[in-house]
Amino acid sequence: MEPEHFLPAAAFVQGGAAVSALDYKVLVLNRAFVAVRVISAKRAFCLLLKDIAEVIHVENGEYVNYDFASWTEISQMARSFEPDKHDWVRTVRFDMAVPKIIRLLGYDRLPAQIVKLNRRNLFARDRNQCQYCGRHFATNELSIDHVLPRAQGGGDSWENLVCACIKCNARKGGRTPDQAHMHLIRKPVKPKRNPLISIRLGQDRYSTWKAFLDEAYWSVELK
Question: Roughly what angle, to the nearest 10 degrees, separates helices 41-49 and 68-81?
Answer without folding.
Answer: 130
